[in-house]
Amino acid sequence: MLEGPVKGPGVIRVLIADQIAHIVEQLAKLSESSDQVEVIGIARQSGDVVAEARLRHPDVLLVSSDLGDVATRSLADALLAASPGTRILVVSSTPPVNGNVPGGAVEVVSANVSGPELAAAIRRVYETRPLPPDPATDPAITPPEASVVAPIDAPVIASVEAPEVEDDPLAAEPTPAPQAIQELTPRRPRRPGRTRGEVFLVYSGKGGVGKSLVATNLAVALSMETGGRVALVDLDLQYGDAAVMLRVENHLTSIEDLAQQGETIDSEFLDEVLATGPAEVRVLLAPPSPELADLVTTANLRVILREMGKTYDYIVVDAPSHLEERTLEVIELADQILLVTGFNVTTVKSTRVTLKLFQSLGVEKNRIALVLNQTRQRVTFPRTEIEQLLHFRSLVQLPYDPHVDEAIDNGQPIIATERKSEMSRQFRALVDYLVPQPADQPAPRMGEHAPARAVSRRRFSIGRR
Question: pLDDT at position 395, please?
């Protein structure tokens, strides 16, 4: 589980029930209050709310009024049995009439509320939780019970003299130890006899950090360095750039054509739909027009990746920066997630929120690798500082390279045009991490196909750890 700042005893445990896009917004708002509020899980459907509450016992349930058929009164009744200590805070897209609060909820806040205001509302709702009974004043507790519950009689306390302690102006609460940086977990070499390919997801919580640059160059590097069969899926279905970056924009078919096949895809038709880019990388293009993106469903994508896994050794998925159901599907299926970030404050903040979201989704730490991409000649703070802020060790640092723009304009990945550059060396290091070789087995020579492998079918329940 990814951990945030050191949590004290007063940290409020929150379960968020909302649509995935809104959950990301709430996490971003609460990121600056992580020393006060900890998001312990999410529920993306109304039917999952009570089950998640029973599993996690949150202090506060942050629930959207737009989440399906949620009725706060019936939800409160169900929570009474599942998690008695949980209180409800409703986030509403419309302000309550005359300040009325839905039955069962403690408070209502606007969806446009700021981060500090949201944290303050969570604190107010939390403070409405009933306190445990005082055995000295509660008449429901009989004298024998009181003698067991009360640790010491008041007269006894009075008779004990406390030792004199001089006031020490320097004395203070001990400073919590700084949180350790999550180190990289080495990947295991491929198992002999695997019959399905591995899926590498390239993702960033913010656009403009070079995510597609990483995805396209990684795909070409995998093909060049391993000799394996490599495919790239452009999952930015509205504004994907893979076609231009790999100079296959004149190819006539895209993922939309596969989606029309439903849940049965012919392998020969799949081969026809894929374009062929540099280093023989096969490319599944995004639809030619943004409005066609909705034709590709989560079920379609699952079938497409399953079919591609039968033919290709490595499948690189270039995902959009916004989270949606299709991206969540790939997050679940991916063998490794490459999280791309940059060197500016807003990008690092977005990455921190993304890591928090991955924690809430139950994504294992060892499936996440951080890629730093330097898009400007000068940076405001060094790599070590970013790692300390994110509590995550970076895998590689892609340096600023003035040849990148020229390579993109020419549709030629820099790994192919500038083989001796530092950026190309970093991409080869990335390949070495993703495809480690057994100690007694040399890497495949250029032009040789690696044996087919199987994707490890990892099924985690969204919102569970």
Answer: 94
What pLDDT does residue 193 have? 67
- pTM as predicted: 0.72
pLDDT, averaged per 10 consecutive residues of the chain (465 residues), comes to: 46 88 81 82 85 91 78 81 90 70 80 91 88 54 44 38 46 54 78 83 93 97 96 96 94 94 89 96 96 93 95 96 89 96 89 89 92 85 88 92 89 91 95 85 45 39 35
Quickly name the fold that domain 198-434 has: Rossmann fold (3.40.50)
DSSP per-residue letters across 159-225: HSPPPP----TT--PPPPPPPPPBPPPPPPPPPTT--S-EEEEEE-SSSSSSHHHHHHHHHHHHHHH
Type of residue at 158: A
Strand pairing partners for 110? 92
Element (H, E) at 26: helix 20-30
Say whether 385 sits in a helix, a strand or coil.
Answer: helix
Cite the beta strand spans of 204-273 per DSSP E: 230-234
φ, ψ dihedrals at 323, nearest 5°:
-85, 135
pLDDT at position 178 is 57
| Helix residue spans in 83-210 (DSSP H) | 115-126, 143-149, 154-159
Contact 38, 7 (CB under 8 A): yes
Taken in order 332, 336, 342, 348, the sign of the CA dihedral is positive
One CATH from 3.40.50.2300, 3.30.720.10, 3.10.20.30, 3.90.550.10 for 12-126: 3.40.50.2300
For residue 81, give every residue at least 6 positions away whose Cβ sits within 8 Å of its Cβ, in sequence order, or none: none
The neighbour count for residue 110, using CB atoms within 10 Å, is 15
Q: At what angle do helices 20-30 and 115-126 cross, to 10 degrees?
A: 90
